[in-house]
Amino acid sequence: MKDAFGTPQSLLVLGGTSEIGLATARRLVARRTRTVWLAGRPSPALEEAASGLRDMGADVRTVAFDALDPEAHEESLGKIFAEGDIDMVLLAFGILGDQARDEDDPLAAVRVAQTNYTGAVSAGLVCARALQSQGHGSLVVLSSVAGERARRSNFIYGSSKAGLDAFSQGLGDALYGTGVHVMVVRPGFVRSKMTAGLEEAPMATTPEAVAEAIETGLRRRSETVWVPGALRVVMSALRHAPRQVFRRLPL
User: Fold this and answer.
1) Which of 48, 63, 113, 144 is the most exposed place for a label (fewest CB within 10 A)?
2) DSSP characters for 39-51?
């Protein structure tokens, strides 16, 4: 259960090497979170991430998880919940892809969609059912402002995030009143390994800033969090811009 300060005592990060996921885990462990599960593909990076959190005093366990293997999600994630209640699940996995390459390689484009959307639908539903069964908990989903309106420069990635965002909002409505809280997080450009080498967009942010916004959103029981907050207004204007105007914007 959450402590008196609203901090989850147990955390499951789906995408255990995600920079945003780990920044959030570090922030929550520093606040009082004691048990952390890192779910991801077995790798030295996953073990290094776990070691870093253990050094902060958390009880950290790793579990094999692959977004592209939804048939295994029920079993792998079910084992985690069988160990005890999870106060917060952070769905943090996803890939950016390479727009130019993926347009010429449909299978690569499909991999982006399967990871960011199909894998998230599967894992999200498995975790939502487990949270509902225990009667409490938060499911935090990392979406993106890219899902607000598809842009020429990254419409494959953006469309996958649009699907994830719509799914998560609907899931939140379905779970309303059950004791389970669903929060959708929409960061803008995040300075990370995933975006290294890309031209930085206006109002760029960091994994640590996203983590801070997630913590604040949890405390407020927010349903949607924009990072930075000013993007809410910007994206509202872009979403309603006429298509002929939108096409001419340097996006």
Assistant:
1) 48
2) EE---HHHHHHHH
Going by their DSSP bridges, the two strands 59-64 and 224-227 should be labelled as unpaired
Stretch 156-169: mean pLDDT: 97
Positions marked catalytic? 157
Q: Tell me whether the omega of the peptide bond preceding residue 228 falls within 30 degrees of 0, making it cis.
A: yes
The rounded distance, in Å, linking the Cα atoms of 15 and 153 is 25
Render pLDDT for 7-53 as a digit per residue (tens, 0 to 9). Answer: 899 999 999 999 999 999 999 999 999 999 999 999 999 999 999 99
CA distance 120 to 70: 9
Residue 126 has pLDDT above 80, yes or no: yes
Distance CA 124, CA 90 (A): 10
